Amino acid sequence: MIYQKTCLPSPALRPFVAHYNFVSSDEAASELQLPPILFSGLAFLLEGSLDITSSNGSRYPDIKDWVSPVTTNPVKLSWSGQSSMISIQFWPGKFYEFFGWPQHLFLDDTVLLHETELEKEFTELFDQLHEAPDVKSRCDLLDTFLLQNYPEKKLYRHAISGPVEKILKGQGQISLEGLMEESRYSERHFRRLFRESVGMNPYTFLRIIRFYKAFAIIKKGNFESLTDISYKAGYFDQSHFIRDYKDFWNILPGEVLDSKNQLALQLLEHTPGVGKIN
User: Fold this and answer.
1) What angle do CA 123, 128, 131 make, to 5 degrees?
2) Nearest one of 111, 31, 33, 35 to 73, comparing CA atoms
3) Which of 27, 94, 112, 129 is the right S-S partner for 90, CB 3.0 to 4.6 Å?
4) What distance in Å separates the CA atoms of residue 157 and residue 189, rounded to the nearest whole number?
């Protein structure tokens, strides 16, 4: 059985941090595959054993603390024994604004926190989280960590924030050419800024947003056929719709609600950016 609880961050952090997410499992062993994730964050395993296999084939056995990256391909998670973890989940594009770490450096890969420039700070935080008695105490620790370590940091609004928000608001049905013209940047510079802030090129980001629009339609059961879903989600045709599900999740649209994907559906319910798509 999976237990999941989210906490809102301090008001000062909410423009950047969507929420803190605590997940625990009492299953003896389990494995799941997640579709692309639009946000970056920090994750800490508090109990149990977790293995992550990135889409590039890299495997991280028994991982404890890491930067959870934006992804453009499926990622496999497997764990054994009673497990629990807590993560800081940033809004799409906001991780870079907060930490100043270009997101394309983390794309489709996993970076261990003890290999970053903040190794000491993250190690201390991990120990505190491990000793905390409950979820609320852990959320308070994350709040304190972010506020104390970055009180004077110049948190700025990245030049690409506006276009990212418009893509989310338009749920993938928006013209990239129009956004580039509005930004007054050259196409090359716009793409560079987008990769720096979001981690991927704008076309891929748009495809993933459209993928999740179709995902929301399937979950609600608000459709009559696959053609109906592809039309409502803004796909050119049904073949493009099916191709995206094969590319992004290695499944067909008709398999989304299968029992084998129920855990993934539960975890995706609280994914920043996805919750705004309906």
Assistant:
1) 130
2) 35
3) 94
4) 17
Write down the mean pLDDT value for the chain: 86
pTM summary value: 0.86
Q: State the DSSP string of 148-160.
A: HHSSSS-----TT
Backbone phi, psi, residue 195, to 5°: -65, -40
Q: How far apart are CA 105 and CA 100, in angstroms?
A: 11
Neighbours of 208 (CB within 10 A): 26
Distance CA 80, CA 100 (A): 35
Residue 250 tokens, joined: 């290695």
What the chain holds in terms of domains, given with CATH numbers, is 2-149 (2.60.120.10), 161-268 (1.10.10.60)
The torsion region of residue 73 among left (phi > 0), alpha (psi -120 to 50) and beta comes to beta
Cβ-based neighbours of 47, under 8 Å, separated by 6 or more:
24, 82, 83, 84, 85
